[in-house]
């Protein structure tokens, strides 16, 4: 795969096809080999926090079933597997030396993937902050950004000889907003100014981590971050809705994009925040760290939001979680990113849907809805490519059914069914369809 800093490729850049997961959602084994608690281990114990009252103590038992899962991944015909590293497994407590047993798991995972011809794509932070760091203030506290950079260096030292692409943080908007403003994700705080401080420190942590890894690199690597992005639309002829859409687009999308790509926060968003009495805790030099060059932007796309003056309006086809199905929005988003943030290679690091899956007696799921969803979104990427967007890959969320955060195990996003009683994995129709899509593109 070639990115911005490469010498020009001889032909068209190869397109990556992948599947994605995250550590907390699939690994289980939360007490194994010296791992300490993350904020999600704590949050799942809070009465009423998780819809079905579950924990991720076992999840998909991937920690113990990793070799079989890698064989499954390779069988799909993908060339890339995006996974995240569990911070409290690798650096228990969030400070100090690497835990050999913890990093050993990822060392073996990387080797197993490479042995199967699949490229590892590492995400360093997919929401499982060590509890001790939350106790010290969490992401609203500036020091957490520095702790994250230290942790990134540890993982980079162990895996960078075999891992080319590094994503720092997954969906900082969700971490800040759901975790610190809405309180529906760990650590479950409801404090808007703290959430905005968290947003800045997540971006700072990203920048510090990239600086540290770039300084340590002895061969070319690609560094990026993954944002959850979606268009925010207003119902027609409604000024209040248009203003609400500007605000929401600012807080959800432009705050992160402008900081990362242009090294500044959007003036209208800073003004909106000032009206609410909130100032971002920006120290001298921060924005140069946040806005250093990105080699790749990960885009997690699920749906576009449409607002009227009162809030979000959801109509048309919906997924099992009530999310609108808006594939043409993905084309629009990719074109917008290419227009407003030119020169930035894009990879869809997550796209997928939860539907109500009905397994047959053998555990097979004829999930035509999910297969059609994936096809429509791959077509949407094609449409963006045809209009000049620089898209370098597409990864399905998710490889496996897994722990869907505040919902628990109810919503199933996998293209592979997991029977949580037996831990049996069964390819759904969508997995077969995805394999055909990939094979068709390669032939
Ligand atoms: O499961 C999550 C994932 O962890 C982050 N992106 C969205 C997915 C579906 O909600």
In the CATH classification, which architecture applies?
A: Alpha-Beta Barrel
- Provide a count of the helices: 15
Provide the helix percentage. Answer: 40-55%
What ions, cofactors and ligands are bound? 5-hydroxymethyl-3,4-dihydroxypiperidine
- List unreliable stretches of 5+ residues: 1-11
Biggest β-sheet strands, sense, barrel:
8 strands, parallel, barrel
**Total number of domains:** 1
CATH first level: Alpha Beta
Strand order of the largest sheet: 1-2-3-4-5-7-10-11
Structural class: alpha/beta
What is the CA-atom radius of gyration, in angstroms?
A: 20 Å
Quote the average pLDDT: 96
Shape: globular
N→C terminal distance: 18 Å
CATH superfamily: Glycosidases
| Total beta strands | 13
Strand content: 5-15%
Strand-helix topology:
Blueprint: E1 16-20, H1 23-26, H2 39-43, H3 62-75, E2 80-84, H4 87-90, H5 100-115, E3 119-125, H6 131-135, H7 143-159, E4 165-170, H8 172-182, H9 192-216, E5 222-228, E6 232-234, H10 239-262, H11 267-275, H12 286-290, E7 296-300, E8 305-308, E9 311-312, H13 327-340, E10 346-350, H14 368-386, E11 391-397, E12 416-418, E13 425-427, H15 429-442
Parallel strand pairs: 1-2, 1-11, 2-3, 3-4, 4-5, 5-7, 6-8, 7-10, 10-11
Antiparallel strand pairs: 8-9, 12-13
Helix pairs in contact: 3-5, 7-9, 8-9, 13-14, 14-15
Bound molecules: 5-hydroxymethyl-3,4-dihydroxypiperidine.
The site of 5-hydroxymethyl-3,4-dihydroxypiperidine has 8 residues, from loops.
């Amino acid at each position: 795969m070639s990115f911005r800093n490469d010498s020009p490729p001889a032909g068209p850049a190869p397109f990556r096809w992948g599947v994605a997961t995250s550590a907390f959602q699939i690994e289980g084994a939360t007490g194994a080999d010296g791992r300490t608690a993350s904020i999600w281990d704590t949050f799942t114990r809070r009465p009423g926090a998780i819809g079905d009252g579950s924990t991720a103590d076992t999840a998909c038992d991937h920690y113990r079933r990793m070799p079989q899962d890698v064989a499954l991944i390779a069988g799909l015909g993908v060339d890339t597997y995006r996974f995240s590293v569990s911070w409290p497994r690798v650096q228990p407590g969030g400070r100090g030396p690497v835990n050999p047993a913890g990093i050993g798991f990822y060392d073996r995972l990387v080797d197993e993937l490479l042995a199967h011809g699949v490229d590892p794509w590492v995400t360093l932070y997919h929401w499982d902050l060590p509890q001790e760091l939350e106790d010290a203030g969490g992401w609203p506290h500036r020091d957490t950004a520095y702790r994250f950079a230290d942790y990134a260096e540890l993982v980079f030292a162990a895996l960078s000889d075999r891992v080319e692409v590094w994503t720092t943080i997954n969906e900082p908007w969700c971490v800040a907003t759901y975790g610190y403003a809405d309180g529906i994700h760990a650590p479950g705080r409801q404090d808007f100014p703290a959430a905005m401080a968290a947003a800045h420190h997540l971006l700072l942590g990203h920048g510090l981590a990239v600086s540290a890894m770039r300084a340590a690199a002895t061969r070319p690597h690609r560094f990026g971050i993954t944002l959850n992005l979606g268009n925010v639309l207003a119902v027609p002829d409604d000024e209040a809705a248009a203003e609400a859409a500007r605000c929401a687009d600012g807080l959800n999308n432009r705050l992160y994009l402008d900081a990362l790509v242009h090294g500044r926060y959007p003036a209208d968003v800073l003004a909106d925040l000032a009206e609410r009495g909130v100032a971002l805790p920006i120290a001298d030099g921060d924005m140069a760290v946040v806005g250093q060059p990105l080699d790749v932007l990960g885009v997690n796309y699920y749906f576009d939001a449409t607002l009227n003056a009162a809030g979000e309006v959801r109509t048309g086809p919906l997924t099992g979680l009530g999310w609108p199905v808006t594939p043409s929005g993905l084309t629009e988003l990719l074109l917008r990113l290419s227009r407003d943030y030119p020169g930035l290679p894009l990879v869809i690091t997550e796209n997928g849907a939860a539907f109500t899956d009905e397994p047959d007696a053998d555990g097979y799921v004829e999930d035509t809805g999910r297969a059609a969803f994936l096809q429509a979104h791959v077509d949407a990427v094609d449409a963006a490519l045809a209009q000049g967007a620089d898209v370098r890959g597409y990864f399905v969320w998710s490889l496996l059914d897994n722990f869907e955060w505040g919902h628990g195990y109810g919503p199933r996003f996998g293209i592979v069914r997991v029977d949580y009683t037996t831990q049996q994995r069964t390819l759904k129709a969508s997995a077969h369809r995805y394999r055909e899509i990939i094979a068709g593109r390669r032939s």
